[in-house]
């Protein structure tokens, strides 16, 4: 197992290296550079000043030198400076990373809290009215665009009913470290998390439902019944366990999916996380930040698939990795 | 002239392992076999599942890579040819697969399924292709109108005949039939077996007939090779094998076939027990010092056995 | 001494819902199995053999299945039992062995757990007792290293070993009655011989009544005391094994014998049964169901509503016109069916 993980991490290195080069070149190929933004902001400044600045920042060096410098710094833990915010990227990321992490985690929990029971009900009593309702919900949640749904949620529960705050990650008035602070954070998390969760259940529900319907017809379920096993146990011990297996393996992919979704969710709910930072950095052409973020997202995606493989090998005795 | 000869054929599947997934071992699926087929005959390859029958057949068709050895067809060693030269011979050898349900692409119409080899090997206009497909369909006893149907519209026996039609389109001379009737019911099985005998006579086909069913093998084959763990342990005419088996594994295989006469039940049981005992006692003497099954030794003109 | 039969099926019909209608897959079947007796059911696939077996165990999906008639087990009608009462019978008084050992075992449970599940359902035993008994069972079914296999998962075992485990599960609570649905169809001949030997040994030790389902007439010849030939949901011929093999009468039975290579020694051509087993929906429900497949027999000779006639003692044939039956002389015309 350890060997497997190490090997997977080793494989990850070239993947990430390739990704980093791609990102770097892509960023370079974009019109404008880190200074374009400030140039437009201060049209009165002499272009020469910028030229000197460019020289100083090394922006005129060939791309591979710049790339080498960037990677070298990354390895020393120096993520570089944000040209726009004029702060260390590490500082910029710190809090937001935590915010996004919590949002992602809570979203994931809600997703499974909703999807697993619904999938189980739909699969066990398929063709019933409950099943039809759930399948209906699935269609709707699949068809509706994320930002439309998020706006509706925000409008109803934020602006309309005032149940949840309409932005931010915590109330500015509460003191850090207190219980009220903790509550406030959760309060801010809930609406975006539920919104994202309601839309990320499709895959899990559909998959679980189909798995259960298939598993119900499997021979070993007949064997279990032929032993005189009560129906309840036939489901809990044989059908559900076997059907949940591939779903468990999806966890890693779900992580990837939710990270992707966070970009929009955070934007709409003005939630200060990595996703929001990502969008604003793109808008401001803050490429040094964008690069780091894409690297981070890429890393997490690869990590997600790795987690999936590991989970599968733990829950399924047929799959042994060594 | 040699019609077909496999000479010291070995086919190993690599087993990978360790940190860098290097080849750490080999599955010796086919481990040095030599056999010869005469034109127009049916040679049966029998043995338990996993003994290497399919691998042998697939290697003959170039679907598996031979590790070493020769496949001599029409006096030419196929393994020494390059791709272009090979494809010339490749159409003389066709395969019929076991499962008529999964070996036909359900999304393709009959005409596309059967025309596939023609399109691969011959350049014909679509009209000619259609005519040719209808021709072979008639040969296998299906109506020429069925070319636009899909496989699911046919019964199991009919599907297997579509598979055979596909194999026949290029006028092959050798057909490798890998368990062609194992997935079929007895009555359908009878139909396909009869049919295979008919077309053999009609087109002077040679069959390499792979099966684990000794009843079918006896019915179909002129000569038989008994395969065990990648080796051939006994080879001879159908009579040699069924009336005068010499290798203990052959005897065991034959004694395992249920006797169709219920009045012989006790006798057959006793016989089987006796063979099993013999098998367990003398098993080891059929292997050489490295644990490999010994080479075949001729007993008569037609009959040879792997005896020490 | 007249003993009570272990299992007595009276006029059992099982129908499945297809679309809005119900179609009988088992049609008015009556059959008796005594203690220590092997009754084989043979027929092509789709004849309703498994449907019959699952009806006895009542393992059909309830919402799409209708059953009529009686299944008397030790005098008690199983069809009138509630689900939980039936659960007390399944696994305890009757066990079932399935065709495909690859799929009949739960891939996520250890062999030991799967054997013990049945004991947990029916017997009050401590964990240690259950384990001891499981190991004994594994030993009994010929598993070379029971301790090890007890902890293994199904995928770690070969097909033959798995089928032994399936048998161990079926006999875990020492049932008096077993149903084996094509227990060796998926296995090699040598393994088949071993499994059949095992079943025979167990049967003679435990005096079990067995229904053995198969399409292999060789297996029947080796195992059965009595044989029921099934076609299109009905029993068309029933006799003890020796009578049936020496004097098969029903056209379907005789066609089956003529189509297998091992019975056709030296014969160049095998008999081909025309057409295919009709699907449930297309099954003719009036007259003789087999008549479509023997078109060369004059239709005037067919019985209108063929009933099981006792043509000699304990030998039943469904139809009286078997007397007119013959195989077609002009086989060439019937070489292939172009249906
Ligand atoms: N693609 C493959 N990779 C590795 N091993 C294989 C492969 N195909 C077959 N084998 C192994 O080779 C042996 C022979 O297989 P096969 O030729 O399929 O036997 P048969 O047709 O007689 O059942 C078996 O041990 C099988 O597990
Ligand atoms: N649950 C079911 N629903 C509908 N049709 C079924 C069901 N089970 C079996 N059948 C049909 O009943 C017939 C008999 O099937 P089966 O008993 O499985 O045949 P056998 O075991 O003899 O091969 C077939 O036509 C099959 O398609
Ligand atoms: S009644 Fe007629 S059709 Fe039916 S089995 Fe007898 S001979 Fe055949
Ligand atoms: Mg094979
Ligand atoms: Mg069946």
Automatic annotation (TrEMBL), chain A:
It comes from the Bacteria. InterPro entries: BPD_transp_1_N, MetI-like, MetI-like_sf. The chain crosses the membrane at residues 101-121, 142-166, 186-208, 244-269, 289-315. Keywords: Cell membrane, Membrane, Transmembrane, Transmembrane helix, Transport. It is a multi-pass membrane protein. It is found in: Cell membrane. One of its GO terms (cellular component) is plasma membrane. Coiled coil: none annotated. Its main location: membrane. Residues 97-308 form the ABC transmembrane type-1 domain. GO terms for biological process: transmembrane transport. Belongs to the binding-protein-dependent transport system permease family. PANTHER family: DIPEPTIDE TRANSPORT SYSTEM PERMEASE PROTEIN DPPB-RELATED. This is ABC transporter permease. It comes from Perspicuibacillus lycopersici. The lineage of its organism: Bacteria, Bacillati, Bacillota, Bacilli, Bacillales.
From TrEMBL, chain B:
The keyword Isomerase does not apply. This is ATP-binding cassette domain-containing protein. One of its GO terms (molecular function) is ATP hydrolysis activity. Belongs to the ABC transporter superfamily. SMART domains: AAA. Keywords: ATP-binding, Nucleotide-binding, Transport. The keyword Membrane does not apply. Pfam families: ABC_tran, oligo_HPY. One of its GO terms (biological process) is transmembrane transport. Residues 4-254 form the ABC transporter domain. InterPro entries: AAA+_ATPase, ABC_transp_ATP-bind, ABC_transporter-like_ATP-bd, ABC_transporter-like_CS, Oligopep_ABC_C, P-loop_NTPase.
UniProtKB/TrEMBL annotation, chain C:
PANTHER family: DIPEPTIDE TRANSPORT ATP-BINDING PROTEIN DPPD, OLIGOPEPTIDE TRANSPORT ATP-BINDING PROTEIN APPD. This is ABC transporter ATP-binding protein. GO terms for biological process: peptide transport. It comes from the Bacteria. Pfam families: ABC_tran, oligo_HPY. SMART domains: AAA (SM00382). Belongs to the ABC transporter superfamily. It comes from Perspicuibacillus lycopersici. It is found in: Cell membrane. GO terms for cellular component: plasma membrane. The keyword Nucleotide-binding applies. Keywords: ATP-binding, Cell membrane, Membrane, Nucleotide-binding, Transport. Its main location: membrane. Residues 7-257 form the ABC transporter domain. It is a peripheral membrane protein. One of its GO terms (molecular function) is ATP hydrolysis activity.
């Amino acid at each position: 197992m350890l060997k497997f993980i190490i090997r997977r991490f080793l494989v990850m290195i070239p993947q990430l290296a390739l990704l980093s080069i791609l990102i770097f070149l892509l960023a370079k190929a974009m019109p404008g550079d880190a200074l374009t933004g400030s140039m437009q902001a201060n049209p009165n400044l002499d272009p020469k000043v910028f030229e000197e600045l460019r020289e100083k920042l090394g922006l005129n060096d060939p791309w591979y030198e710049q790339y080498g410098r960037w990677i070298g710094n990354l390895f020393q833990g120096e993520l570089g400076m944000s040209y726009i915010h004029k702060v260390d990227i590490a500082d910029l990321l710190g809090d937001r990373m935590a915010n996004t992490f919590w949002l992602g985690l809570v979203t994931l929990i809600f997703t499974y809290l909703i999807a697993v029971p619904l999938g189980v009900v739909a699969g066990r009593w398929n063709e019933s009215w409950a099943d039809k309702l759930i399948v209906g919900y699935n269609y709707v949640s699949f068809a509706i665009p994320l930002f439309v749904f998020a706006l509706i949620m925000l409008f109803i529960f934020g602006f309309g009913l005032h149940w949840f705050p309409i932005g931010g990650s915590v109330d500015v008035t509460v003191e850090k470290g207190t219980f009220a602070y903790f509550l406030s954070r959760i309060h801010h998390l809930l609406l975006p998390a539920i919104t994202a969760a309601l839309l990320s259940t499709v895959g899990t529900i559909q998959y679980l439902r189909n798995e259960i319907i298939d598993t119900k017809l499997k021979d070993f379920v007949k064997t279990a019944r032929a032993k005189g096993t009560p129906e309840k146990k036939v489901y809990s011990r044989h059908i559900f366990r076997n059907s949940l297996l591939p779903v468990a393996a999806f966890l890693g992919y779900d992580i990837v999916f939710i990270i992707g979704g966070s970009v929009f969710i955070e934007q709409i709910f003005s939630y200060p996380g990595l996703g929001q930072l990502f969008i604003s950095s793109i808008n401001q052409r803050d490429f040094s930040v964008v690069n780091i973020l894409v690297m981070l997202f890429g890393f997490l995606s690869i990590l997600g698939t790795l987690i999936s493989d590991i989970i599968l090998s733990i829950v399924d005795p047929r799959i042994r990795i060594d | 002239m040699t019609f077909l000869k496999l000479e010291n054929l070995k086919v190993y599947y690599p087993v990978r392992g360790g940190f860098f997934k290097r080849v750490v071992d080999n599955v010796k699926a086919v481990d040095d076999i030599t056999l010869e087929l005469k034109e127009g005959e049916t040679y049966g390859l029998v043995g338990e599942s996993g003994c290497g029958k399919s691998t042998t057949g697939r290697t003959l068709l170039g679907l598996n890579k031979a590790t070493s050895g020769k496949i001599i067809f029409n006096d030419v060693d196929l393994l020494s040819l390059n791709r272009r030269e090979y494809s010339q011979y490749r159409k003389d050898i066709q395969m019929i697969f076991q499962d008529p349900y999964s070996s036909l692409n359900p999304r393709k119409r009959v005409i596309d399924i059967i025309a596939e080899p023609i399109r691969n090997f011959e350049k014909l206009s679509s009209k000619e292709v259609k005519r040719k497909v209808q021709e072979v369909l008639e040969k296998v006893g299906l109506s020429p109108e069925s070319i636009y149907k899909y496989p699911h519209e046919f019964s199991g026996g009919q599907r297997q005949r579509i598979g055979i039609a596909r194999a026949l389109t290029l006028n092959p001379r050798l057909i490798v039939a890998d368990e062609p009737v194992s997935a079929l019911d007895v009555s359908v099985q009878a139909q396909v077996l009869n049919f295979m005998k008919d077309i053999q006579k009609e087109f002077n086909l040679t069959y390499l007939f792979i099966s684990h069913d000794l009843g079918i093998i006896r019915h179909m084959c002129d000569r038989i090779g008994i395969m065990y763990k990648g080796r051939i342990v006994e080879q001879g005419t159908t009579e040699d094998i069924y009336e005068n088996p010499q290798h203990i594994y052959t005897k065991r295989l034959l004694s395992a076939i249920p006797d169709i006469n219920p009045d012989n039940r006790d006798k057959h049981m006793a016989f089987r027990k006796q063979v099993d005992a013999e098998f367990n006692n003398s098993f080891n003497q059929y292997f050489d010092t490295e644990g490999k099954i010994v080479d075949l030794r001729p007993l008569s003109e037609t009959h040879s056995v792997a005896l020490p | 001494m007249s003993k009570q039969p272990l299992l007595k099926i009276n006029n059992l019909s099982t129908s499945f819902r297809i679309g809005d209608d119900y179609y009988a897959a088992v049609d008015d079947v009556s059959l008796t199995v005594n203690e220590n007796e092997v009754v084989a059911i043979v027929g092509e696939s789709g004849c309703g053999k498994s449907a019959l077996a699952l009806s006895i165990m009542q393992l059909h999906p309830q919402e799409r299945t209708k059953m009529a008639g009686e299944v008397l087990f030790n005098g008690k009608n199983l069809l009138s039992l509630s689900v939980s009462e039936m659960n007390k019978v399944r696994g305890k008084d009757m066990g079932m062995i399935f065709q495909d050992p690859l799929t009949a075992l739960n891939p996520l449970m250890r062999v030991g757990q799967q054997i013990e599940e049945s004991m947990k359902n029916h017997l009050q035993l401590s964990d240690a007792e259950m384990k001891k008994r499981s190991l004994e069972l594994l030993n009994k079914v010929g598993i070379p290293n029971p301790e090890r296999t007890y902890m293994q998962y199904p995928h770690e075992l070969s097909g033959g070993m798995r089928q032994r485990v399936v048998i161990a599960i079926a006999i875990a609570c020492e049932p008096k009655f077993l149903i084996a649905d094509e227990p060796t169809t998926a296995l090699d001949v040598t393994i088949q011989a071993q499994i059949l030997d095992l079943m025979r040994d167990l049967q003679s030790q435990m005096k079990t009544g067995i229904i053995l389902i198969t399409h292999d007439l060789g297996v029947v010849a080796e195992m059965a005391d009595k044989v029921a030939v099934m076609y299109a949901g009905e029993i068309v011929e029933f006799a003890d094994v020796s009578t049936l093999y020496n004097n098969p009468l029903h056209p379907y039975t005789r066609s089956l014998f003529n189509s297998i290579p091992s019975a056709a020694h030296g014969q160049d051509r095998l008999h081909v049964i025309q057409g295919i087993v009709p699907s449930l929906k297309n099954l003719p429900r009036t007259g003789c169901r087999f008549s479509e497949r023997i078109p060369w027999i004059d239709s005037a000779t067919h019985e209108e509503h063929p009933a099981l006639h006792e043509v000699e003692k304990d030998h039943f044939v469904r139809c009286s016109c078997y007397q007119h039956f013959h195989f077609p002389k002009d086989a060439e015309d019937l070489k292939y069916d172009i249906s």
